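Q: How do we represent a protein-ligand complex in a form that can be generated token by token?
A: Start from the inputs.
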Amino acid sequence: MKTQLFAKESACAAIVETGHALIEKKLVAGSWGNISCRIDAQNIAITPSGHGYETLTPEDVVIINRDGEVVEGKHIPSSELKVHTAIYNAYPEAGAVIHTHSIYASALAAMHHGVPAIIEDIVQIIGGRVECAEYALCGTQELAENTVRALNGKKAVLLANHGAVCWGKNLAEALLAAEILEKAAQIAVICAGTGNKVYELSCEDVDVMHDFYEKHYSKRQQGEE
Ligand SMILES: [Zn+2]
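Then emit the structure tokens for the protein with zinc ion bound:
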């Protein structure tokens, strides 16, 4: 019980810290975007709907279960909770989900383009080309289903006319994925603007790099290897 209480408190504090990082890194503005992380097999901590990140406190974070029902909290959970729970239910190894409205990812999403596998760091962490999920209204079950379908085994997806979603084993990895995704989207937009041919990495090379990242490099980043 004590362990669970500590897990809940540290999850809520980590969500607030990640919210500050999203603002600092210009991946969201105002109260848009949302963050969640798993507390245990059943419970998820998620940002409340409509609260700015600068003033967010751990007490504002809402606890929901895997079905999206509120377990604890004084606020309404994020309106995109269906996207979050759908990812946790589809990927048992997912420990955190971050949804951003970052500029270059949103620019590609407005054109219904994905992020091509043209730079090594994006394929290392995400696992290949990032697809753009079919459009559905925000907050709907349809959007959650489209998101999971377009993820297709990767750790990031664009949401048509909306933004991006990334997941990771924990909040640090999900945040890194969101940053690298935005950088790759910016590079893709710059390349497209030149009109020159862009060379995608081969599937074989992508698999080698992603496999190495999963087995070794991500552990080194977390100080585990
Ligand atoms: Zn959104």
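The mean pLDDT is 93. The longest helix spans residues 171-194.
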